């Protein structure tokens, strides 16, 4: 698999694009938005033949047909990935977005064929089989049954794979060879990063929706509906892939690790700086459209993250027999808390647990960040031999974690010059990729049925 497929393919969701992608995507859209004044459109316009101008759910792209079934099966994939049933209004908007995505895929496949670098069925089938086994843990037959059960099909997924492989091939041939990054640029960036050691760095997800003065209100409303779905538990990655117009859409909106100044927009910088990991903000109006931001994580440049410390823990747990009343459980939990508070180190865990009728389980090499968020700050403040406050429920019983050892992480070295070179190349490739796709759309003959 090429480096482009790893970065642009939706099936490589763990990949992250370079920190500068946001600025390259928005730079193009700001340029397009600023040129809208050239049309000199008056504010008080009257729409003629409004009903006839509505886009339908099928289209013909340079002679290639996109059917309603194509749209339905792709929508089913998205709904299944999102693990939440959208409303009828959301489905309507999703269908229009899917149609736009299918049009782009068709253009990419057609362009690759026209340049005699098309993707063969064998290549598509190989990638599909790898995806089924590696990501979904299913055989070919099981994958077919799964896709059918959600209202989709192998053909729909293979079409998306073919589009992404075709686009990958086009970028490697027509874009990447013409992207150059000098050693002077890389060295300058490396020196700036070294000077910024200890400053905050953010891993941010974005959903960008472009808007013109004429579409501003409609796009704003759509962005607000997306925020509602995300707050209700929708998958940010799934929504970014299908709705975002930034080049990071292919990797679920992931900007990678960046300094806040790299957003290069005062409004976004201000709101992102106030976020805590796991929080959303938006829609934020910026030149050319609206953005929704999601703070995935936060760290200090060149500094070890204490949440990467590896712990040696003992869990002391007390189960409540079936039929235990709330009052009895509270009394037993209180006696348990009093007993474990007297433990003077991990060596006494088993003997004290025996007197309480509790069980002890030991585990080593547990990263703090892998534990529930509510426990992480507590464990960060513990010394060896100390225990967390008791936690649990009537159903699960009550337990504590006893800290028996801790290996702190080594300091992070930060990216080397080779990594920075790759990041700058990716940024410029993405900028040109956006322009390439824009040109394909502009030259296409599209009929809506």
TrEMBL record:
Highest taxon, organism lineage:
Bacteria
Q: Does the keyword Metal-binding apply?
A: no
Gene Ontology molecular function: any one: peptidyl-prolyl cis-trans isomerase activity
Q: Which residues form the PpiC domain?
A: 199-297
- Pfam families in UniProt: Rotamase (PF00639), SurA_N_3 (PF13624)
Q: Which UniProt keywords apply?
A: Isomerase, Rotamase, Signal
| InterPro entries in the record | OMP_Chaperone_SurA, PPIase_dom_sf, PPIase_PpiC, Trigger_fact/SurA_dom_sf
Protein name, entry field: Parvulin-like PPIase
Keyword match Isomerase:
yes
Signal sequence extent: 1-27
């Amino acid at each position: 698999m090429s480096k482009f497929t790893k970065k642009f393919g939706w099936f490589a969701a763990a990949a992250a694009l370079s920190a500068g992608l946001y600025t390259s995507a928005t730079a193009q859209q700001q340029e397009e938005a600023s040129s809208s004044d050239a049309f000199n459109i008056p504010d008080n316009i009257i729409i003629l033949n409004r009903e006839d101008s509505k886009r339908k759910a099928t289209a013909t792209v340079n002679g290639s047909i996109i059917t309603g079934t194509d749209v339905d099966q792709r929508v089913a994939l998205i709904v299944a990935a999102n693990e939440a049933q959208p409303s009828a209004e959301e489905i309507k908007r999703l269908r229009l977005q899917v149609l736009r995505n299918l049009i782009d895929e068709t253009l990419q496949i057609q362009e690759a064929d026209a340049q005699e670098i098309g993707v063969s069925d064998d290549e598509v089938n190989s990638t599909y089989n790898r995806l089924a086994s590696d990501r979904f843990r299913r055989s070919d037959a099981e994958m077919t049954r799964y896709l059918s059960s959600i209202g989709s099909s192998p053909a729909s997924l293979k079409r998306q794979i073919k589009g992404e492989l075709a686009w990958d091939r086009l970028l490697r041939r027509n874009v990447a060879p013409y992207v150059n990054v000098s050693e002077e640029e890389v060295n300058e960036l490396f020196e700036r990063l070294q000077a910024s050691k200890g400053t905050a760095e953010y891993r941010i997800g974005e959903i960008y929706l472009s808007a013109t003065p004429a579409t501003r209100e409609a796009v704003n409303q759509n962005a607000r509906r997306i925020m509602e779905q995300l707050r209700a538990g929708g998958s940010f990655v799934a929504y970014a892939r299908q709705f975002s117009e930034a080049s990071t859409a292919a990797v679920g909106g992931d900007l990678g690790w960046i300094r806040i100044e790299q957003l290069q927009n005062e409004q976004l910088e201000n709101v992102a700086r106030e976020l805590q990991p796991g929080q959303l903000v938006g829609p934020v109006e910026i030149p050319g459209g609206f953005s929704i931001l999601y703070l995935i994580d936060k760290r200090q440049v060149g500094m070890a993250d204490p949440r990467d410390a590896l712990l040696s823990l003992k869990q002391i747990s007390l189960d409540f027999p079936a039929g235990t009343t709330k009052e009895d459980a509270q009394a037993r939990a209180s006696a348990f808390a009093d007993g474990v508070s007297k433990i003077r180190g991990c060596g006494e865990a088993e003997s004290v647990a025996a007197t309480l009728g509790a069980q002890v389980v030991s585990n080593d090499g547990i990263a703090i960040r892998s534990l529930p968020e509510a426990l992480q700050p507590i464990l960060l403040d513990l010394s060896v031999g100390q225990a967390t406050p008791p936690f649990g429920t009537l159903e699960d019983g009550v337990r504590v974690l006893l800290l028996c050892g801790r290996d702190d992480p080594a300091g992070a070295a930060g990216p080397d010059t080779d990594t920075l070179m790759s990041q700058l190349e990716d940024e410029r490739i993405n900028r040109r990729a956006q322009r390439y796709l824009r040109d394909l759309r502009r030259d296409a003959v599209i009929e809506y049925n």
